[in-house]
Amino acid sequence: MVHPNPRPAARPTVEDEVAAAGSELIGGPLGRRAVSAGGPLTAARVLALVAIGMFVLGMIQKAPCYHSGWFFGAGAQYTHACYSDIPHLYSGRGFADGLIPYVDRIPTDSSGGMEYLEYPVLTGLFMEVAAWLTPGSGGGMEQAQAYWLVNSGMLMICAVIAVVCVSRVHRHRPWDALPVALAPALALNATINWDLLAVAMVCGGLLMWSRGHPLASGVLLGLATAAKFYPALLLGPLLLLCWRAGRWREFGAALAGAIGSWLVVNVPVMLVAPEGWAKFYSFSEERPVDFGSLWLIITQRTGSPMPSVNTYATGLFLLGCLGLAVLALRAPRRPRLAQLAFLVVALFVLTNKVYSPQYVLWLIPLAALARPRWREFLVWQTCEVLYFLGIWMYLAYLNTENQRGLPVGGYQLAILVHLAGTLYLCLVVLRDVLRPEYDVVRRDGSDDPSGGVLDGAPDVFTLRSEPARPFPPLAPPAAYVDWGVERPPVAPPAPVDVSRETPRDA
């Protein structure tokens, strides 16, 4: 009997020149035995500690607002770039007064006209649990500070879960999660809103799918959709990839799990408080063009409020989805799940009428799995950090008496940089799909380590006129060119004939 050797853990400092150069700051490239699988410092534990460290740095960055910026004058929280929704919504959505989300109507004089909580059900539950854990009562400064700290602690747990799950999606590539743990945009945006709850469940869903548990994966994706809308988009890539591989039973299990878990969470609230439950969906539909989107530039340039922006944004998104469907069914080899997942979520935020700064959290884990290369990731993160500073300086310009900040033209440039960074990473991932020999994950002979039942499965349906490239091996060229630099191929491990092996002594 012949079976392939287990692949050794990939070492980014060997295959990635940017990681190798950066490693000189901490003693040089990672050695083969630097992190032992049985020692105290496993890859997952190191990554968890790094994620906690970066999260704490992000909390420290919010210190000027924690002490005064959220409470005394609107301008300080923008000039110090430390804004967060969390302390404002503690009072503004009735948590300080003990109101029940979705059931109790919020006084409009304290909520800015919002009668009910405008977040999905699981996010509302998360906010309510944090309110229960917040000591004291009332909407004073100390309670709002405590509420932010409680939420930050809970969101830190979500961040660690996300990083650890990403580290386990690709069994032999745990260090692909290091960009997630070290992402500057994660530290800066983690406590602006509650997006990390959905991000953690999405990463758990991807992990379950990679381990061949489609029902559990669907349950987690359904729960994530009950916290944010975007996780539902991942069912599209699963549909296309299962269609191409003929894995309908697994897709059906994932779809059933997602629908079932979403209904279990939502139906009780829908029946008890239908008006409050529907607020998230009506608010999303009625919301005008907002910060960070291409549509905002068009609105500001033309002076038109674009009343039909929902139609335009939805049409453009659906057109992009059609293109991704053709890509998934015509690519030389079936795309990896992480690649299509990143592309569809990126398409959603690029075409959406609002691209809030914390939406980058949705993309960070997917980007690290889709294209685990530091150069592209850092280029994208640089654009996100520039936008993070740009939006707060623009709001400072709008909310301070002397207009200290970034004027409209400068903010529009920041939006373009923001969108261009995301589009750049999309183009790199598209190149990897169309030219699989450039895909870092596949250079050792892998097919789709995150694909679960799709990993190594033959195609049963494509839109190609000629047969798709077979698996295994993706025969690497004698040398491949990555950004103008010729590099040697990475050979897949040789098989071992275990029939000739001598059994170990008992």
UniProtKB/TrEMBL annotation:
Topology term for the membrane: Multi-pass membrane protein
Family: Belongs to the glycosyltransferase 87 family.
Name by which UniProt lists this protein: DUF2029 domain-containing protein
Native source species: Streptomyces hoynatensis
Pfam family, one: GT87
Transferase in keyword set: yes
Key words, A-Z: Cell membrane, Membrane, Transferase, Transmembrane, Transmembrane helix
Localization terms from the record: Cell membrane
Recorded GO CC terms: plasma membrane
Membrane spanning residue stretches: 42-60, 146-166, 178-209, 215-241, 253-273, 311-329, 341-365, 377-398, 410-430
Molecular functions per Gene Ontology: hexosyltransferase activity
